[in-house]
Amino acid sequence: MLRSVARLVLTGLMVAGLVWSGLSLWRFIQSPVGGVLVARSEAQLSAAYEHALARHATAEAIAARISARLQEMPRNWVALEGLMALAEGQELPEPVASAYAQAHAEDHSWRAMGASCGACAVDLRHCSMGADLGCGIGVNLTVAGDVLSLGRESGAWMRGEDLDALDVTLSFIGIGATGLVVATGGTSLAVKAGAGVMKVAHRMGRLSPGLRRIYTRAAREGVDWAAFGAARTTDDLARLARMEALRPALDVTEALGRVQARVGTRGALHLVGQVDTLDDARRLARASDALGPRSVGAFEVLGKSRFLRTGLRLSDTLREAIAGLMAALAAGLGLIWNRMVRRLRRAVA
Q: Which of 4, 218, 243, 310 is most exposed, with minimal Cβ within 10 Å?
């Protein structure tokens, strides 16, 4: 009698688990949001990154990454400084600490800075991610830089030369940010900052092919260039925008502006080279909100895939489906075990 009740209970659990799993999978498939992974809440996000760093950002791992970066020429001091900031409170091996100090003294000497800083100030294409970077980025992060870019490209157009469409589009976004964010729900400060960062990244050749495609489409379809010459105010510029085509570029720009606010301009320029899609930009912005100045070092140690994936979790409907399948599997195994025990008893008898 007891065995019959147990079989009935296990059968019921298995059926219930399968039904629950099937319903969860159906809801998952029908969901308009869908997606196997969804963004973590702010509290979950911070906890997830702290857990990931506790596991992977050990003194040994940071030291190994610093050693690898020190071998590069020119050295990426944005990444190196980010790694040292992440190592704060940990004791790095003496050889690594000494090599870092020696390299820093070499690259930041007056002689080294004099040559590289001058070249970077004249042309951003000559800037590295080293000590010279600050010499070339100042004016490009202001409206003056946007006006200069538009003037330079207008002169090229009048001479019959090819325009730098990406530079012009980013200048348009930077100057017209106040009017454009009305349609995006963003903040003009983030858009302005992001446009400046993206302009510098573009001039330095640090934009990925994916981001270049987003901005190329914005340049081609997102602005009524025929009416551009008649614009006199930032509100006039905003009215030239074709938002459906321009919105992805604005969203990327705003996300990178948020990153810049958390990690600084040099840190944002380092990270933007790893952004391929709008989703990448949004995940990077959320991660920088959680990690702040440690974002660069965390990215170096965790790598792009783990860094961006840490901000995601399985969707609730998919987790419910998995839980239902596990319950059905456990009940099924219980039934199989029960039957095996019965057969063994009969064989012994």
A: 4
